[in-house]
Each structure stands twice: as structure tokens, then as C-alpha cells.
Predict the structure of Aldo/keto reductase.
Amino acid sequence: MPQLGFGVWQVPDAEAETVVATALEAGYRSIDTAAAYDNEEGTGKAIARSGIPREDLFVTTKLWNSDQGYDATLRAFDTSVSKLGLDYVDLYLIHWPTPERGLYVDTYKAFEKLHADGRIRAIGVSNFLPEHLERLIAETSVVPAVNQIELHPHLQQHAAREYHAEQGIATEAWSPLGQGKGLLEVPAIVAIARKHGRTPAQVVLRWHIQLGNVVIPKSATPSRIKENIDVFDFSLDAEDLAAISALNEDRRLGPDPAAFNGA
Ligand code: NAD
């Protein structure tokens, strides 16, 4: 799995073909979409049009909450691959645990079947707390390859990252730039950016990379799409990393996974 990919949440389907094509031209090879983003068709069109060999791409999509359950998952997966125009996906994620539904274990068993059938290369989850992962690991056979969680300098997720590392689960950071809101204006980040002759977004993405997180920044602006992947030719030093670590506030932008039950 490439450590840096392209996220397409909030990209309208009609624009996804152009935006994803721009990302593929800029060198991204990993795309993160979801049934709920309603842009699998546009994403699939960009992939088809790119001419990039399928084996060079890493495509992630996610199962929405209302499709949880064994049979519903099998049907939802068929819909997603058909919209994407693909025979298989590289990574399929349960979008949220929605623990009140009580269906994430059954859902994951359908993921295991699709995995065994070769229709998904790797299976994982998103927004799972360690308690949900513990139950999943106890009751199913395949340890999730990935847990995609909200993670940025204001929400550093130390406990989750540690638990993932113990279990051999990759940590993937959603909203890695904190959705571009105040985070990119924080003086400590702006100062580090000046020191390296880089942008604040590049500094934050580089911090993730050096921590070992998988990141999937989103932008619909061609110059930012290019800027966000251009983070592999400089390094943050120990002082920079410590200054960013000091920004943790355990503050979520998104919902609390223990309570979120989105339909
Ligand atoms: P992000 O942290 O990637 O921020 C994106 C926003 O930051 C952009 O809309 C833009 O306003 C700004 N931005 C981007 N590049 C910039 C740059 N170089 N300079 C200045 N501003 C810049 O936020 P996101 O889109 O929420 O998260 C990224 C991806 O994570 C999503 O597209 C999606 O694929 C995934 N995601 C998953 C979940 C989940 O529940 N699993 C939830 C949210 C997002």
C-alpha cells in the first residue's frame, strides 16, 4: 500500500473524473473513496481513462453503515465494484463500527469471504476503537490490515497507534491536514515550514510520513494536489517533530466512533 494516497471525500461525482485524473497525473497511485462519497463512478472513469496498469494502482473503497450485515455487504460490494468498473479492490473498509447496530462482526465475515474469493486484496476497518478491534480479532480469522482513523496534529491518537502496532494493523490517517482548517495556520507549523522552505501542508504530511502513518490528503486544486505529494525529498528533525507532537489536543473534527450510528 502506498504510504501517501489521494482522498476524495466531498468531491462531487461529476468532478471526480477530472480531480482523480489530476491526482494520477501528479503521481498518486492510491485512491481512497467510499460508497457514501457517491463518487465511485467518476473515480472509476478516471482510473479507466488513465491507462495506468491496474496492478500499479491501489484502490480503497468503504462499506456504508446501512449496508452492514452479511448478505447486505455482499450486495453492497457488488455495487461498489460495478460503479468503479473494477474486478477487485485493493482494500475494502467497514466505514464505521456503529456498535449499536451490532453487525460489524457479521459484516467482516462477508469481507473475509470476498477476500478468500480474491475480490478484495486486503480487508480492514475505519473508525474502530481498540475495543471494537479486540472483539473483531477474537471472533474472526483475518486481522484487519488497516484501521483508517481521524488523525492529525490536534488529534494524535497515541493509544490507538500503539494498539495497532501491537496487532500488526497499519494506521491510516483521515483528515491528515485537519481539513485544512486552523491547523495550517498554527504558528509552530508555519515556522517549521519557513525553516524548510516548504508549505504548512507539506510539513504536516511529512510529520505523518515520518511517524509511519498512511495518509490520504484531499484537494480539488491542481497546485495543492501536486504540493501534497511532493513530501519525499526533505526531512523534519527531532526538534520539528517534538514541536508538532506538542500540538496534541485530543480534539476531534468528526464524530465519536463509540456513538456515531449514521444511517
Ligand atoms: P484533509 O485533512 O485532507 O483536508 C482537505 C482540505 O484541506 C481541502 O479540502 C482543502 O481545503 C485543504 N487543503 C488541502 N491541501 C491543501 C494545501 N496544500 N494547502 C492548503 N490547504 C489545503 O481532509 P479530508 O478530506 O477530511 O480527509 C482526507 C481524506 O480522508 C478524505 O478525502 C477521505 O478520503 C478520507 N476520510 C475518511 C473518513 C472516514 O470516516 N473513514 C472521514 C473523513 C475523511
Q: What stands out?
A: The CA atoms of residues 113 and 119 lie 9 Å apart. Residues 7-9, 32, 95, 126-127, 148, 174-180, 184, 199, 201, 216-219, 224, 227-228, 254 surround nicotinamide-adenine-dinucleotide (CB under 6 Å). The chain has a mean pLDDT of 98.
